[in-house]
Amino acid sequence: MAKNRKLKVADFHCDALSKLQANPKIDFKNDPCLDVTAERLAEGNVELQVFAIYLSAVRGRAKFEDILGQIECFHQKVAGQGGLQWLRWKEEAMESGLTAPAFGMLSLEGVDGLEGNLFYAQLCFELGVRCLGITWNYANWAADGVLERRNGGFTEQGRKLIEWCNRSGMLLDVSHLAPAGFWELLELSTRPFIASHSNCAAVCTHPRNLSDDQLKALIVKDGRIGLTFVPWFVRDGGGAKREDMRRHIEHVCGLGGSGQLMFGSDFDGIDSWVEGLEHPGQYAEFADLLLKYYPEADVRGWLYENALGFLREQLPSSAGNASFLER
Q1: Which is one Pfam family of this protein (predicted)?
Q2: CA of 292: how far to CAs of 4, 253, 286, 289, 301, in Å?
Q3: What is residue 2's predicted lDDT score, i.e. its pLDDT?
């Protein structure tokens, strides 16, 4: 079967930066140590890749300097050697529909490294980070993660973070957030938010997946649901194949969320893969699979247009947002 080359892709989550930070010898262009490379993005027609800044516990206590290190990796290896353009502003998402070369956008997976300091959050914004995942799996200074047994909501400082994000235009991401925090954010946030890499708990019972009530709330708020390719989030017991993604797609659509569905692979954050979705170069074959079952307009939306439309509406404008270095 010929690969589908006409459908663009936006992927809202990968962890390549943490690997690039851990091993400076890795070449982003085509290194086999990475799932996400410049060559594979081109092969899969991925025109937007969101790069998460993930601070592994292996490095010890999360520090702001480690966030800065991964931002530097993005500039040197991804935007530099890899040739990707940098997406920061609404105007950049509006101008040309993100034509080649591909764009990269920065997100933060867990705010631990901000060390409870909102000035560090502001500095991340100035340095081009555009989305904050509030927690990883456990508690931090802002809120509880989904694996924290007490299932707490936001701290007082975490509520201040929400207010700051709403004012600044920083996007918020609830993947990994405890359910109590999800519902609190729904009440406190004046803007839509996303789940960058989460699946449907009704289809696969992993605790990182979202309940139907959470999915419905995201749909009503016109947020985005990034279905992920983590095998144990796709199918109970693992051993998932790319055809298994259809169950999650159809479940979200059955709840009325076709217009809010997108993808967040979690490539480079996993050590086993959905069969047939081992790297972004295989998005083309995935598109062909989806086109067998669904109208092309729907598939275009899920792969690209829903994500891009959200960014066009929700990214901050460059007007009035001059860098603090220019003020």
Answers
A1: Peptidase_M19
A2: 12, 17, 10, 5, 15
A3: 44
Residue 313: pLDDT over 70? yes
pLDDT at 322: 52
Q: Report the phi/psi class of residue 148: left, alpha or beta, with left for phi > 0 and alpha for psi in -120 to 50.
A: beta
- CA distance from start to end of the chain: 55
State which amino acid sits at residue 242: R
Cα–Cα distance for residue pair 140/25, rounded to 1 Å: 32
**Burial class of 197 by CB neighbour count within 10 A (0 to 12, 13 to 18, 19+):** buried
- Residue 57's pLDDT band (cuts 50, 70, 90): low
202, 251 Cβ separation under 8 angstroms: yes
Amino acid at 27: D
Tell me which residue has tokens 């979690």.
Answer: 266
pTM of this prediction?
Answer: 0.95
- CA-CA distance, 309 to 274, in Å (whole number)? 27
> Are 209 and 179 within 8 A, CB to CB?
no
